[in-house]
Amino acid sequence: MVSPILELTNINKSFGHVHANKNINLTINKGTIHGIIGENGAGKSTLMSIVFGLYQANSGTIKVNGKEINLRSPKDSIINGIGMVHQHFMLVENFTVLENIILGFEGELVFGKNLEKAKKDLKNLCDTYKLNIDLNSTISDLSVGFRQRVEILKSLYRGAEILILDEPTGVLTPQEVDELFKILRSLNEEGKTIVLITHKLIEIMDLTSEVSVMRQGEMVGHTKTENTNKEQLAEMMVGRSVLLRLDKSELKTGDVVFKVEDLTVKDDLDVTRVKNVNLEIRAGEILGLAGVTGNGQTELLEALSGIRRVESGEIYLDEKKVSDSQNFLNPRQLKEKGLAHVPEDRQRMGLVTDFKAYENLIFGYHDQQPFSKSSILNHKDIISHSKKIMEEYDVRPQSPNLITSNFSGGNQQKIILSRELNEKPKVLLVGQPTRGVDIGAIEFIHQRLIDMRDRGAAILLVSVELDEVLSLSDRIVVMFDGKIVGEKENKNVTDRELGLLMAGVV
Amino acid sequence: MATVDKSRVPWWVSNLIVPLVNLTLALFVSGLFIFIAGENPYEAVRLIIYGSFGYIEGFAYTLYYTTNFIFTGLAFAVAFHCRLFNIGGEGQAYIGGLGVFLVAINFSFLPVPIVWLLAVGGAVVFGAAWAFIPAYLQATRGSHVVITTIMFNFIAASLMVFLLVDVIRDTTQMGPHTVALPEEQWFPSFEDFAALFGVKIRYSPLNISFLLAIAASFFVWFLVWKTRWGYEMRAVGHNTQAAIYAGISPNKNIIIAMCISGGLAGLLGVNEILGVHHKIVAGFPAGYGFTGIAVALMGRNHPIGIFPAAFLFGILYQGGSEVTFDMPNITRYMFVAVQGVIILFSGALENLFRPQIENFFVNRLNLKAKA
Predict the structure, then answer these.
(1) Cβ-count burial of A380 within 10 angstroms (0-12 exposed, 13-18 middle, 19+ buried)?
(2) At which of A204, A238, A272 does a domain end?
(3) Domain of A42?
(4) Which of these, A30, B56, B59, B97, is most buried using a 10 Å CB contact count?
């Protein structure tokens, strides 16, 4: 007997200009494990946050068990039997498991005789679903896998019939993933409905009975998992949107100007994020680096630009070693040697948003002539330079004295690009050049990158937009789990092939 | 509530009207205090104005206090541009005074103007050195400067008491102070200047350090907005991640900003020792270092704002002492409370009415534009 437990109709949600969810319809049947798959930024998490009451939809209706409900906060969702396990756990680290679970209900529980009952109920839940949690252990002593189980237990204790898990395996080791899947299966056998949000095809095939695919804020397909395969899902996930047309001249490559050998990089938490990566970029070519966010691209870019220390391996610029684990040049020294960097996150790294536009237009080059002479800033030259490049790169409005945060995202990006490209770099590292940028600016930015290539710069383009990688690159490498898992000439490569590589399938 | 587009708020609204409204409110609340204490608030205001402007010596006192507040206000502002909360101005000023005295007394064989220059240098170096230690700990160990600088205030106070009692005390006297500097080294006072023009006035502590304070204001403005160092300090303060991306070292800039800040605080010692006491007296910074924080916040960390803010506090200090003379119910501590209210309204509650005021003016301007 199949009956829908959760029905979403025509859900819309926008954040400013970004339309994160467009007319989403979704039906989840009782007692199923339903997968929702899509690339990062496809709108999966937004949709589930609406279901959990964290966000309110702009329009659309939500029905639980056939009854229309109004979700204004997570409390409403919990009452209606919806529980969610977030990507980042919501636990108080120095509380015990028990304390975390009864948090918010302590009025009735902690000091009353009900506490014993609560303990018993929790023990029963642990036994039924083989969660194997000691209620008295402190959260900070538990491994990530166990913390996740505490979250699950918390939802169950609050009466969840529908359990939403947002990218639950992202932080787990393979063994922990197996354990989690066992638990989810046993939950399912006991009649719970599970919604699994993920971008990993393997998990969908392993665990789910039904699957929905999202792309760029839209729901693009529903199917039973047994009726589909990884290739088909990958195709749906990546889509076949029309490539942007670009005038690109014949490839004329020169010598290798940038070379990475056996590079390994760790992140701030001491986790190895880049694993033995080798790259070579020639003058006059664009090397595209495709991959789903969080597979080490950020750390790779940071290491190449001198921001992050290299764990092992070497980086060569113009056949001269610039970085290894012992010696490395800082970003400014690399800039002087002709390496420019357009960072992935412009507001966090590329700009000081409280600075005036002209101050950002010299950022990182502020100590060079003619901007500063014996450490005194040359205001007149800086302003005239700013006016010139703001006109050249069509930054609007063309007022160097305006505070940078008042510019739109696209124009902020142009400020960074004009600054980095203006110095005619030999090597250009570009991260997500068009993230959050409007169509007009995208074309402009792409054309500028092609111009740089034709002028003989070696360009590394890191982007999660597959279309962008495909339309700009001469050669494409795919990164998955910190490793380069494939390299293709950009001639007859299809987005499907890349999609499979990105998902770690082949 | 609708948010105001920041770019459309005229500068005079956010930088003049808003502080004035806050100040008015603070004075109103202070007036209530005085009323509750059983005195007439109008009379108190009249006394404040008379005390700080009404006669030449009173005005000179006002400017003397202003001098100290400028130094400590600038000191706080420089560190704040690097987003460092240097509340150690008090201790840095104290140690700066030690530098002034040691230099002046040991180099007294040199011509006086050179001794002055060296003494100013001594103030800067000693103040900077006292700020360097917390700065170094912040940069390399992550020990928060708020904690370390306030602890360094206590250490400075204890160290100075030790020195003044056991090491550099004037042994012919009982008090904890040093011997006086030779009279030719004393800074020319306002009295001396007036005498040049044949005007005879009574004593006031105002001296040429006031000019040094104005010079320091220019220096800070130039440093923060016109040099590479100021640029890098502000970059680190606003967005450390971006600074690293641009190859600017946060650690180096934390240390530079704190040392400049400490050096400026140290200049207070020049005013107090070369200009007023002519020797080190125990406890001479007398809370100027802390009031400097309020001055800087009220002056929006810009020298152009710090000057009027310092002047306002000068008026309150000088006018306040006038009030306590004439009004038996008002004690010195009452004026500490008044200062507190001003700090509360222009510092902590600075944004209480800002949105409403800015909205009001933006709406009016929009109407005008449409008409």
Answers:
(1) exposed
(2) A238
(3) 4-238
(4) B97
